[in-house]
Write a structure and sequence with these properties.
The structure is a homodimer.
Chain A: E1 16-22, E2 28-34, H1 36-45, E3 49-52, E4 57-60, E5 69-76, E6 83-89, E7 104-107, E8 110-113
Parallel strand pairs in A: 1-6
Antiparallel strand pairs in A: 1-2, 3-4, 5-6, 7-8
Chain lengths: ~120, ~120
């Protein structure tokens, strides 16, 4: 039976959070959002496509930067309200040119930058 | 300078999404939510503590099941609107007794269970 993106649980804005992980290193690269159409585009075309909340339009990751994400596998969680995408990431995933958006470590004492920009 | 949980960006409900990753295997275990107090409790006590949206109260992970998550490291993303917690997970993270909540693989053709319950 074909997968139906509308079978996922979306929030009040019609969005579902998406965790993006490097399929080989298993590094968590970023978290962004998809609507049902973005889920379908990602599954059909293999280029990871989010919904940009700030620009209110589809965001084909890397379309302007070249830092594309090719889908390797999509997984849904037990509650059907979150996705995990395993990707082949070209270059940095973060707009700061770091490999991952999670480059700041936090503890009670403060914050530490743990990753430098790639380029 | 001490870390101030109120410096993070929370949604309209005062919550921030949290990706939970096994610190050694790098498996993504689950995604849940914290409010500023849950962030503080997690950093101060080292037991990962979420905010349960369904029960509207703190959720010390594993408090009843024993499947606790001990904090190894917390990271914040570039937009300060998402957290990544690296944890030492006792037993399964998922309420279905699977190690991870992401046990269902999805493609255009359908869904496949890729992980069995641990116990």
């Amino acid at each position: 039976m074909a997968f139906d993106p509308s079978s996922l649980k979306y929030d009040a804005n019609g969005l579902i959070p998406v965790v993006t992980q490097d399929h080989s290193s298993h590094e968590v690269l970023m978290v962004a959002w998809m609507n049902a159409d973005a889920v379908k585009k990602t599954l059909d075309g293999g280029k990871v496509t989010y919904w940009s909340r700030s620009r209110q339009k589809f965001w084909v990751k890397g379309e302007t930067s070249g830092h594309v994400q090719t889908l390797v596998e999509m997984r849904v969680d037990c509650d059907r309200d979150c996705l995990l995408v395993l990707v082949d990431q070209t270059g940095p995933a973060c707009h700061t040119n770091r490999r991952s958006c999670f480059f700041t470590s936090v503890n009670a004492e403060g914050e530490t930058e743990i990753m430098k920009p790639m380029v």
